[in-house]
Amino acid sequence: MIFVAQDGKCFYCDRPLWGAVESKGKQFDSNHTIDHVVPRSDGGQGGRNLVIACLRCNQDKGHRMPTEDEIQRAIALHNKVAYLIEAFRGLPLTGWSYSKDAT
Ligand SMILES: [Zn+2]
Questions:
Q1: CB-CB contact of 35 with 57 (8 Å)
Q2: Ligand 1 centre and the CA of 22: distance in Å?
Q3: Given CA atoms 62, 63, 65, 66 in this order, what sign does their dihedral have?
Q4: pLDDT tens for each residue of 1-21
Q5: How many angstroms separate the alpha carbon of residue 89 from the centre of ligand 1?
Q6: How far apart are alpha carbons 60 and 56 in whole angstroms?
Q7: Which of 55, 70, 80, 81 qualifies as a FRET site for 25, CA 20 to 30 Å off?
Q8: CA distance 2 to 80
Q9: What does the H/E/C string look like for the chain?
Q10: 60 CA distance to ligand 1 centroid (A)?
Q11: What's the CA-to-centroid distance between 46 and ligand 1, angstroms?
């Protein structure tokens, strides 16, 4: 569901998250990773702390703390996710592999 709320784009750089990608000389099947806005090492949890980032941004970000702007955007994103979940309630479920982690 986060994937839909982010329009299939990276939380940080807005690059599309579809398709294979090459990063640091390695080939990856897909260009998306689940990123913790507040790093786990600094007490960040799952749930509303999760966004989808492209591989490169996730690697570049490492363990730095989010900026105030990123925190605000993550909050806005998850408000949108909550809205979408409500809007989709009652519709037949298809095999959406991210719904488990995104809710
Ligand atoms: Zn990115």
A1: yes
A2: 13
A3: positive
A4: 888 899 999 999 998 887 777
A5: 30
A6: 6
A7: 70
A8: 9
A9: CHHHHCCCECCCCCCECCCCEEECCEEECCCCEEEECCCHHHCCCCHHHEEEECHHHHHHHCCCCCCHHHHHHHHHHHHHHHHHHHHHCCCCCCCCCCHHHHC
A10: 9
A11: 19
